[in-house]
């Protein structure tokens, strides 16, 4: 892989983040969802919405291959991952793992986070399992039409130790 670099997003990255997030969502998340879910999901991925999230302190970690945005990992409250997207042409290169580890280390350092949650798209469950997440049977999904699988990553668990690196 040529010249991969990671950094935190700035407000002026919001448009590029939105383009990537919407593209990945249309390809990997919307199939299998109810027809009216697209509007709901995509609305939170507008440049304005992302800029507001960044301004509110939600952290977006970005991965660039050369100068092209290849992936994004976003978290709120230093514990709930709400985006971990890698552009289709960059998948399979370890970018998601690098973004995940950066986001995780940052949250542990900043807030002492001991567990992370997310709501995985059905197609993404195998990826999250490889990253060390497990289904979170105790989680209650918000009342929503979005089909997803609640997952959890417990820092320091035996499962976590097998998935480092």
The gist of it:
Helix content is 36%, strand content 25%.
Description of the molecule:
The chain is an alpha+beta fold and 165 residues long. The chain has helices spanning 14-29, 37-43, 47-55, 95-111, 125-130, 158-162, and strands at residues 4-8, 59-65, 68-76, 80-86, 115-120, 134-135, 149-154. The chain has one domain (4-162): Aminopeptidase. It contains 6 helices and 7 strands; from the N terminus they run E-H-H-H-E-E-E-H-E-H-E-E-H. Strands 1-2-3-4 form a 4-stranded antiparallel β-sheet, with helices on both faces. Strands 5-7-6 form a 3-stranded antiparallel β-sheet. A hairpin with a 2-residue loop joins strand 2 (59-65) and strand 3 (68-76).
Number of helices: 6
| Terminal residue distance | 17 Å
User: Which architecture name does CATH use?
Assistant: 3-Layer(aba) Sandwich
User: What is the N-to-C succession of helices and strands?
Assistant: EHHHEEEHEHEEH
Just give the CATH class.
Answer: Alpha Beta
Task: Tally the beta strands.
Answer: 7
Helix content: 25-40%
CATH fold label: Aminopeptidase
> SS-based structural class?
alpha+beta
Low-confidence stretches: 160-165
Tell me what portion of residues adopts beta-strand conformation. Answer: 25-35%
Q: What's the story with the biggest beta sheet?
A: 4 strands, antiparallel
Strand order of the largest sheet: 1-2-3-4
**Mean pLDDT score, rounded?**
90
Protein name: GNAT family N-acetyltransferase
GO molecular function, one term: acyltransferase activity
EC number: 2.3.1.-
Pfam families: Acetyltransf_10
């Amino acid at each position: 892989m040529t010249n991969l670099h990671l950094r935190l997003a700035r407000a002026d990255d919001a448009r590029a983040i939105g383009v990537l997030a919407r593209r990945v969502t249309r390809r990997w998340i919307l199939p299998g969802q109810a027809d009216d879910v697209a509007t709901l999901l995509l609305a939170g991925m507008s440049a304005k919405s992302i800029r507001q999230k960044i301004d509110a302190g939600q952290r977006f970690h970005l991965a660039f291959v050369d100068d092209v945005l290849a992936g994004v990992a976003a978290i709120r409250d230093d514990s709930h991952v709400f985006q971990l997207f890698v552009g289709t042409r960059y998948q399979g290169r370890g970018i998601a793992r690098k973004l995940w580890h950066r986001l995780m280390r940052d949250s542990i350092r900043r807030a002492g986070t001991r567990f992370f949650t997310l709501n995985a798209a059905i197609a993404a469950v195998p990826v999250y399992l490889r990253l060390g997440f497990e289904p979170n049977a105790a989680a209650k999904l918000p009342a929503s039409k979005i089909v997803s699988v609640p997952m959890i990553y417990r820092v320091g668990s035996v499962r976590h130790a097998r998935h480092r690196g």
